[in-house]
Amino acid sequence: MAIRRKLIASLTALVSFVLSGVVQATADLNMRPGVTETSQEAYDLHMMVVWVMTGIAVVVFGLMFYSIIAHRKSNNPKPATWSHSTKVEIVWTAIPFIILIFLTIPAIKLLIKMEDASDPDISIQVTGSQWKWHYKYLDHNVEFYSNLKTPQQEANFDLEKATSNANYLLEVDKELVIPVNKKVRFLVTADDVIHSWWVPELGVKKDAIPGFINETWTSVPKPGTYRGQCTELCGKWHGFMPVVVRAVPQAEFDAWIAQKNDERVAAEKAAAEAAAKSWDLDKLMTLGEEVYNAKCAACHKVDGSGTPPLFPALKGSEIATKAERMDEHIGIVVNGKTGTAMAAFGSQLTDAELAAVITYERNAWGNETGDVVQPADIQAFKAGNQ
Amino acid sequence: MSTENQEKYEKYYVPEQSPWPIIGAIGLFLLAYGGANFIQQTTGKYNNDGSMGWIIFSVGLAVIIYMMWSWWRDTIRESMNGLYSAQMDRSFRQGMLWFISSEVMFFAAFFGALLYARQLIVPWLGGEGNNAMTHALLYPDFIPQWPLTTTPAGETTTAMGAFGLPAINTAILLTSSWTLTIAHHALKDGNRSALLNYTAITALLGIIFLGLQAYEYYEAYHHMGLTLGSGIYGSTFFMLTGFHGFHVTIGTIFLIVMSVRCASGHFTKENHFAYEAGAWYWHFVDVVWLFLFIFVYIV
Amino acid sequence: MADHHPTGIKRWLFTTNHKDIGSMYLWFSFIMFLIGGAMAMVIRAELYQPGLQFVEPNFFNSMTTMHGLIMVFGAVMPSMVGLANWLIPMQIGAPDMALPRMNNWSFWILPFAFTLLLSSLFMDGGAPNFGWTFYAPLSTTYGPPSTDFFILGVHMMGISSIMGAINVIVTVFNMRAPGMTLMKMPLFVWTWVITAFLLIMVMPVLAGAVTMMLTDRHFGTDFFNAAGGGDPVMFQHIFWFFGHPEVYIMILPAFGVASEIIAAFARKKLFGYSSMVYATASIALLSFIVWAHHMFTVGMPIAGELFFMIATMLIAVPTGVKVFNWVATMWQGSMTFETPMLFSIAFVILFTIGGFSGVMLAMAPVDFQYHDTYFVVAHFHYVLFPGAIFGTTAAVYYWLPKWTGKMYNEKLGKIHFWWSMIAVNLTFFPMHFSGLAGMPRRIPDYNMMFAAFNQLASIGAFALGLSQLFFLFIIIKAIRSGKKAEDKPWEGATGLEWDALPCPAPYHTFDTPPQVK
Ligand code: HEA
Ligand code: HEA
Ligand code: CUA
Ligand SMILES: [Cu+2]
């Protein structure tokens, strides 16, 4: 008997010790509550289920450890002979059942709320493609690609880079900007494989399925920058496809939209000008290298060697070296090749950039063809392809 | 009771060692390795000339056929020598039943795909459920219907009607089930000539079925623009009818072998597991066809 | 009774003996476990620190994929079949498995299937790199050329599993000794028959899924392509219709093992035998209607999400019955704690912890935050490593004397236990935290904020790897120079294999049926 009492005492001591440790540690070990109503409710539900599970664990494991100590052979040399009791079995079928009902009800409520994307204030189409996000504001004439800030080139990712930057792998060149306190609806889809658009602080995760559009929504009460990542394996650079959302007050948002519109007009004009003039090889090569390293090197590698057979080498490739296959070369860059990772860059790059990158590919890494592709050639190609 | 059991056990026969299983495993390996290379070569998606795909594949096939031949030869010999007990016979029967169950599940996967496509995907692409935006943004011109004769990408095809060849084929298979049942009863009654005739007729019906099916495929490919690549309708149509046809082929070979074995007097009233296994298999193939006829052709 | 057996290489290649086949399965699975584990070591080494240190991202993805595939299909499943082969005939008083030659075929397909799968590591374009769940279209249109070899390898594994399952079912239904009624069968046999039913139901569906992949890749079908009227999500439905029952295929036999061992070392009859049987059957039945809990984020209609959420949570009820029955079996027993018992107790505790995180994952609105993060990775390693692997480990220690006639060294066994126990928690517990903090799975590099937990996990993983090599050492030592085992090495052990047979069990058992009262 004494032994038993001592055991119970030490067991309770142990449990309370562990619990207090857990409570203290939760601050940095736990899910983040996030900033939106839904993310906070999800967090509350998470905490509730954690505590329920902890409670069950304490009871079940407590009984078990008690038995392990009290009913060991040295303490209890003669085992009991019973092996059945319908009554207790009914009880311990019923209790978990009740606990589950208790967990399910708030979950159902929250789920219904989270899936209700009706009556949005603004809608944004979010398209995943290997390995960047494309955002298109359906109510405004604004769209752009959002890439990992550090271009996806090997040798770029090392411990030093990681430790020196708090937002390592979580920074993009162009953030998604949304207004605060507005119901923003995301229409999530993909160009190639399945991706998943996740921002933990907003409590939003939705798979981007090629050929289908999934709806989800958020309403951010607080201005700020919220970071997330692609969470569905989507190929080689899946880990390098961050999502960054900046929530701003409405006025700032309107200004941003206006600025984007101005930029677009200016860019269209600049592109038209650039396309109109004739470039020399050096200029094309400089611009081409820049574009190539930013957009193409992820797959074809900086030195053009690719990783055959998944991503063909451009160095020495017939398409990029034979004069008679020039049209094919322009074609594959402009239109991509459906069913492969080679995307259509015709609308992602300006005509001048297209001309430059193609010229670069035909002259870099020993592909010395001397060919010069002018923006005008691209325009002619596009016109001929209409 | 217990002495009776004792006798059964004493007659129990743990088969001798056999080389065929591992040869079968090697055969499967060659079939798979060669098959993968062969497919890659023929469809030209990857450049792997010189991998001798089809040669390895053929060798694998030959090994498998040789293995099956020899394995069954051994089994038949043992069975004819009376080595097998009633218990062994039950094991074979139950084994065959569970094998057929697994085949049912294989077809279930494709039927599942068909029903999922018809009941869910196509309406969704047309904007139903929570997919209004899918339709509005991606496929505004798409018209949901089944058979899906125009895909979202705009490819067109024609649907295969139910009441030409397929109806005739249904009749043929139903008849064949009937003739096979007659044969089976004849076997149990010890009526050799009826057994032989009706088994052979069943096999013949199987061959006619296959011939008509081949003709239907020819029509589909050459006059109806209905191919494996014709969107989900073509995919499900050919995969379901194709795998069924493949099973009919196996069943027919099974029946032909059984005819030969009947002719050489292998089966007795009591002892004819192999025949029954073939019959079960044939009925299974038949039932699958009925489902096919309903869900692929009619509805 | 003459206990002669064939000798030389033919004994193994051509065998029809369930014990030889069982041994081959067990050794094969252990080799696969080491290979899959070595891949996990590559993963953990790369994740030890942020930055890309050892491997490039594509190879990392291949490692993740191959690790998952090899552990599931190469290590866990064959090890369970190995146990079935050794134990089921002895436990039900049968002379052998019902279809001995097919049994041999089931086994020998496996080494070839895995040769095919592993050879993909050396192919142009690398091994499969789309995760063990091989979602389309990443695995179809975008898969590397080795995908086709992977597909045919999966076909071979499927054929092997289906034949193995048929064999188990037929053996149990047709080969029991007189008096061995169904409700007298040891629980291990029960859990295995139910597992075998699951296998027959779902392996063909997996075969269907990979077949559709093959035709989508090469023959122009559009099953998983929306432009042709298909749907990538349909792949996931078909895969998980297989995949969820599959996880119970991996755990149910381990439930059976734990039930036998806990009763033996508590020296008490298993509590609630019949409810254990019904609970196992309910788990199996429920497992067919919960698959889409892996797909809460794919954009299912809300009715579907609600249905799958509720059905999934229900599985906690029968599983709870099992856990409570184990505790009740221990209650007022007379327990000793030899290595098999230690592993079984750890199994119950750690599996339950994995089950708890499972229930958390089942709650759809919160799963939006957990899904595809390391929280999921933590969940399934808790149910798989201290679940399925500890279950098998316990079984090996427990039945080793029956198989080899030798005892392992108890002291070394205890060291192995505590070493694994600490390492397994050190490896997988921190993954809960990195997951909650927001670390996605299947990434080769990560932000600094996840660094501490990853470092801990990596250290744990290396220790865990070493502990498994230590296990190998203990077993080899026992076989070569272990103490000779008594016929009944465990005081509380019951069942035909202990009561009616000596240690080691003779090559041919039960030429005449034992009487079961
Ligand atoms: C052996 C393998 C195994 C087992 C047994 C389980 C058991 C369970 N799993 Fe797990 N699971 C996996 C292997 C397994 N799982 C794998 C491999 C994956 C990932 C696949 C991938 O994506 O790669 C996964 C993923 C996974 C997900 C998807 C997560 C996601 O991707 O977002 C979910 C969601 O519902 C889930 C739920 C469950 C549940 C509810 C159980 C239940 O069966 C657990 C039941 C047990 C208990 C609950 C404990 C004991 C009960 C009591 C003590 C009674 C009292 C308890 C209560 C009242 C709560 N699992
Ligand atoms: C039963 C199944 C099982 C088992 C036992 C394990 C065991 C381990 N797993 Fe496993 N794991 C899975 C099933 C399993 N895993 C699955 C299904 C996935 C999902 C895959 C996917 O996302 O697609 C996964 C994914 C997965 C990940 C996530 C990868 C990612 O998302 O990118 C990680 C990361 O840490 C991991 C780690 C480990 C570790 C450290 C072990 C350790 O326990 C391993 C212990 C180590 C050994 C046993 C090795 C001993 C050997 C040596 C030390 C050297 C011997 C040398 C030679 C043979 C040459 N696993
Ligand atoms: Cu995009 Cu992962
Ligand atoms: Cu599951």
What's the arrangement of secondary structure elements?
The complex is a heterotrimer of chains A (386), B (299) and C (517).
Chain A lengths: L1 H28 L7 H34 L15 H29 L7 E8 L2 E6 L4 E5 L12 H6 L11 E4 L4 E7 L4 E5 L4 E5 L5 E5 L5 E6 L12 E7 L1 H27 L4 H20 L17 H4 L4 H10 L15 H13 L11 H10 L2
Helix pairs in contact in A: 1-2, 2-3, 6-9, 9-10
Chain B lengths: L1 H10 L8 H24 L9 H28 L5 H40 L6 H7 L26 H25 L2 H32 L7 H33 L9 H26 L1
Helix pairs in contact in B: 2-3, 4-8, 4-9, 6-7, 6-9, 7-8, 8-9
Chain C lengths: L7 H6 L4 H30 L9 H36 L7 H20 L27 H28 L12 H32 L13 H35 L6 H14 L15 H13 L1 H15 L8 H24 L1 H7 L3 H31 L1 E2 L2 H28 L13 H31 L1 E2 L11 H4 L18
Antiparallel strand pairs in C: 1-2
Helix pairs in contact in C: 2-3, 2-4, 2-15, 3-5, 3-7, 3-13, 4-5, 5-6, 6-7, 6-8, 7-10, 7-11, 7-13, 8-10, 11-13, 11-14, 13-14, 14-15
The structure holds heme-A (HEA) (2 copies), dinuclear copper ion (CUA) and copper (II) ion.
The site of dinuclear copper ion has 9 residues of chain A, from loops.
In terms of DSSP E residues, the strand content of chain C is under 5%
Mean pLDDT of chain B: 88
What's the mean pLDDT score of chain C?
94
Q: Helix count of chain B?
A: 9
Write out the strand line-up for the largest beta sheet of chain C, numbering strands in chain order. 1-2
- How big a fraction of the residues of chain B is strand? under 5%
Poorly predicted runs of chain B are 1-10
Cα radius of gyration of chain B in angstroms: 24 Å
- Helicity level of chain C: 55-70%
Task: State the largest interface.
Answer: A-C, 101 and 96 residues
- Outline the biggest β-sheet of chain C: 2 strands, antiparallel
Report the span from N to C terminus of chain C.
24 Å
State the CATH class of the largest domain in chain B: Mainly Alpha
Q: Which oligomeric state applies?
A: heterotrimer
In short:
The complex is a heterotrimer of chains A (386), B (299) and C (517). With 299 residues, chain B is mainly alpha-helical.
Word description of this protein:
The complex is a heterotrimer of chains A (386), B (299) and C (517). With 386 residues, chain A is α+β, with helices and mostly antiparallel strands. Chain A has helices at 2-29, 37-70, 86-114, 159-164, 250-276, 281-300, 318-321, 326-335, 351-363, 375-384, and strands at residues 122-129, 132-137, 142-146, 176-179, 184-190, 195-199, 204-208, 214-218, 224-229, 242-248. Chain A starts with a helix and ends with a helix. Chain B is built from nine helices and no strands. Chain B has helices at residues 2-11, 20-43, 53-80, 86-125, 132-138, 165-189, 192-223, 231-263, 273-298. Mean pLDDT of chain B is 88; it is low at 1-10. Chain C has 16 helices and two strands. Chain C has helices at residues 8-13, 18-47, 57-92, 100-119, 147-174, 187-218, 232-266, 273-286, 302-314, 316-330, 339-362, 364-370, 374-404, 410-437, 451-481, 496-499; strands spanning 406-407, 483-484. A two-stranded antiparallel ribbon of chain C has the order 1-2. In chain C, helix 3 packs parallel to helix 13. Classes of the chains: A alpha+beta (386), B mainly alpha (299), C mainly alpha (517). The interface between A and C is large, with 101 and 96 residues. Bound molecules: heme-A (2 copies), dinuclear copper ion and copper (II) ion. One heme-A sits between chains C (133, 247, 250-251, 293-294, 312, 315-316, 319-320, 323, 352, 355-356, 358-359, 361-362, 367, 370-371, 376, 379-380, 383-384, 387-388) and A (56, 60, 96, 99-100).
